[in-house]
Amino acid sequence: MQKIYFYNTRTRKKEEFRPIEQGKVGIYSCGPTVYAYAHIGNMRAYVFADSLRRMFELIGYDVKHVMNITDVGHLVSDADDGEDKMEVGKKLEGLDAWGLAEKYTKAFFKHAEKLHIKKPHVVCKATDHIKEQIEMVKKLEDADYTYIIDDGVYFDTSKFAEYGKMAKLDIEGLQLGARIDSAGKKNKTDFALWKFSPKDTKRDMEWDSPWGRGFPGWHIECSAMSSKYLGEQFDIHTGGIDHIPVHHTNEIAQSECASGKEPFVNYWLHCEFLSLDKDTKMSKSKGDVLTIDSLEEKGYSPLAYRYLLLTSHYRNPIKFSFDSLKMAKKTLRKLQKHILSIKKNAKDIVALSDIAIKHKENFLNAICDDLNTAKALAELHAVIADKDITDSEKYELIKYFDLALGFDFVNMQENKDIDIPAEILDLVAMRDEARQNKNWEESDRLRDKIIGLGYELKDTANGAEVRLKDGNI
Ligand SMILES: [Zn+2]
């Protein structure tokens, strides 16, 4: 089988991947906290996890991908300070916490689908797994890792000698300089396993437990659900680099102390940040967060954003700008046009030539070398430019590469996917309807919007024709 290498945060080394069970891989990804729309930067971690899953599928692994939905317990500060994010969100929106979670879970999956992120095999909500979380806290209590103070049940990190090892935390330094933020906590790094509901307020989400009415801490959900679906030890855990010092450090502590087995996870893979450039940040300060929907409103397809993400290695930070997105859009459009013309000439073939086989090897070596999507994309461009292989061979390779890249080149349609994005066609249809109803104000408004997005309109007897303005990409 093809060899795979990953940079493992646990060992800080690039290592060959060896699954627990031959031919199978279990992957757990920390999912979204559903109290607001996911920002485009949040979506980077899910495109990364999707590429990882696709890579394993491409080379024939039996993959089980599990992702949680944090719909309770994630406090404003990762260190158990402040309010539950769900409670903050609901106050802003006039929904209860359940309604808020439902709204933003739906929005998350809508955005994920537009980015061609495959839905994980198991999507598990924290609120559906209260029993499992309570059971895990009980196990920790029985093994004497916990203590109770006014506001909840806490994990005593001083009892776990390995605490903070992956994150290389300076525990002594932390303790010395620390203001202990929750009254009664024994160590700065101790964290809540179960929080009690405030005495004077009724929460939308609260449950009975052996320790009192309340709700689970954020970290315990990932430990309880990953072990339920993947076992007490499994192959790969993914998340953003921001999770290393607190969330993942606490997951390791809870899981290893509850099961008595280590390591909890063999390979920890962490994705870097996407930051916004100065100009883009300005629009954020006005209160609108940059989402997949807002990219579409500005005339960028979600796939152009996927392309942009794949041009960087997941362990490199990305500085997002509309200039770089525009460049990605232009390159993807060119690529799609080339592929469409190759597809027209392609015929079924029996075997690949040596040159084509070499391209395939290069692609596999790139994608299996710590998921080097940038190098893999470069190989796709090399295939398209290669004059020594036939279009039929090229199309075979493109179809194969696309299983890992996820652009669905096979099913793209010339007009819809390349020249005019679906959202522009929708606007044109809405304008046609407004014209039929003689609603001139609305039709003018829609016309201006379409033109503003870089398209030209020509009215004909059969409705409006739309095309890209010359010079625009
Ligand atoms: Zn998690």
Write the layout of secondary structure elements.
Elements: E1 5-8, E2 13-16, E3 24-29, H1 40-58, E4 62-69, H2 85-93, H3 97-114, E5 122-125, H4 130-142, E6 146-149, E7 152-155, H5 171-177, E8 191-196, E9 214-216, H6 218-230, E10 234-240, H7 244-259, E11 265-271, E12 274-276, H8 278-285, H9 292-297, H10 302-310, E13 318-320, H11 322-345, H12 354-367, H13 373-385, H14 391-405, H15 414-419, H16 422-436, H17 440-452, E14 455-460, E15 463-468
Could you give a short description of this structure?
The protein is of the alpha/beta class and 473 residues long.
Description:
The protein is of the alpha/beta class and about 475 residues long. About 45% of the residues lie in helices and about 15% in strands. The chain contains 17 helices and 15 strands. The protein has helices at about 40-60, 85-95, 95-115, 130-140, 170-175, 220-230, 245-260, 280-285, 290-295, 300-310, 320-345, 355-365, 375-385, 390-405, 415-420, 420-435, 440-450; strands at about 5-10, 15, 25-30, 60-70, 120-125, 145-150, 150-155, 190-195, 215, 235-240, 265-270, 275, 320, 455-460, 465-470. Strand 1 and strand 2 form a beta hairpin. Helix 1 packs across helix 14 and helix 6 (about 220-230) crosses helix 7. The radius of gyration is 25 Å and the shape is globular. The structure holds zinc ion. Zinc ion (ZN) binds near residues 30 and 247. Zinc ion binds next to loops.
The oligomerization state is single chain
CATH class of the largest domain: Alpha Beta
Bound molecules: zinc ion
Task: Tell me the CATH architecture of the largest domain.
Answer: 3-Layer(aba) Sandwich
Shape: globular
Biggest sheet: strands, sense, closure?
5 strands, parallel
Low-pLDDT parts are 282-286
On the 0-100 scale, what is the average pLDDT? Answer: 90
Q: What's the Cα radius of gyration?
A: 25 Å
Individual helix count: 17
- The amount of helix comes to 40-55%
Percent in strands: 15-25%
- Which homologous superfamily in CATH is the superfamily of the largest domain? HUPs
